[in-house]
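ok so i was messing around last nite and threw this chain in just to see what happens. nothing serious, just curious
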Amino acid sequence: MEALSCPKFAKCPIYQKNVFKNESAGETYKNLYCNAGETRFKTCKRYLVSEKVGRPAPDSIMPNSSLSVDEIISKMMIAQ
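result:
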């Protein structure tokens, strides 16, 4: 059975910390990525980075980031 929502959603920092200045933007991301089925949340850059490094992506990374997963991880390593 296909998952209907991202298993990381409940702990996702961009929703826990409410980083969206516009509430409708947050709802749009939730509808497009988090609650749109397995095929969609597995395209989320936040999800992919988290799966690869074992910790959440930086708060500044949106689900549709133009950066590749490797670029995001590289920036994370530099920031440490």
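not much to say yet. Residues 12 and 56 are 7 Å apart (CA to CA).
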